[in-house]
């Protein structure tokens, strides 16, 4: 009887770990993507990503890195949420976020420092992240998400694979309950259970 209970518990644990691992977003690092191809987010294969500045504990000095995103469809928009920022050398290091050619994070407190969570939804189909650092002391950088927003989908129907955020962003249901804030208001992580 004890052997069956242990076997059942082991199976439940494996299934729970498998579900959690399946929901974990693939990790992307800006310093490995600098100057590469434009990342196209689409509703099926890549509806959003989780992005960190570096896989190291601290970013490198003298970085000048640009990563570009665009939507697959002209009716889609992009939601960018900076979840954590640790860019301490504000005199020389900064993250600038562009919607096409328009700077979104005009407030210097959202370009460097230890800012609280902030979110922008683009008006265009293009997003650019520009990070620059000088030769001084570096820190850990940032963590963010970039997700597709489907503003033209009426009512954002969950039965068709969408998730309606409290802030009215409509994202892919694939991005809910993965431990990252794709909505911008974290409502995609509010009612999650892995049991």
From TrEMBL:
- Going by the entry's taxonomy, the superkingdom of the source organism is recorded as Eukaryota
What are the cysteine partners in each disulfide bond? 165-183, 177-192
Signal sequence region: 1-22
Record key words, sorted: Disulfide bond, Signal
Among Gene3D superfamilies, the record links this protein to: Low-density Lipoprotein Receptor (4.10.400.10), Spermadhesin, CUB domain (2.60.120.290)
Which SUPFAM superfamilies does the UniProt record give? LDL receptor-like module, Spermadhesin, CUB domain
Name it. CUB domain-containing protein
The taxonomic lineage of its organism, from the top, reads:
Eukaryota, Metazoa, Spiralia, Gnathifera, Rotifera
């Amino acid at each position: 009887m004890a052997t069956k209970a242990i076997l059942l518990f082991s199976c439940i644990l494996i299934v729970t770990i498998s579900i959690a691992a399946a929901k974990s977003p693939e990790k992307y690092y800006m310093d490995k993507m600098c100057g590469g191809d434009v990342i196209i987010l689409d509703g099926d294969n890549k509806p959003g990503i989780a992005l960190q500045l570096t896989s190291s504990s601290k970013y490198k000095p003298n970085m000048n890195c640009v990563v570009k995103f665009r939507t697959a469809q002209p009716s889609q928009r992009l939601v960018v949420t900076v979840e954590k920022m640790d860019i301490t050398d504000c005199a020389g290091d900064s993250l600038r976020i562009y919607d096409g050619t328009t700077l979104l994070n005009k407030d210097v407190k959202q370009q460097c420092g230890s800012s609280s969570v902030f979110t922008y939804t683009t008006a265009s189909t293009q997003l650019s992240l520009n990070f620059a650092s000088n030769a001084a002391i570096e820190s850990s950088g940032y963590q963010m998400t970039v997700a597709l927003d489907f503003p033209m989908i009426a009512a954002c129907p969950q039965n068709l694979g969408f998730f309606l955020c409290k802030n009215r962003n409509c994202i892919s249901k694939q991005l809910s309950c993965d431990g990252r804030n794709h909505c911008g208001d974290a409502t995609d992580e509010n009612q999650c259970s892995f049991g």
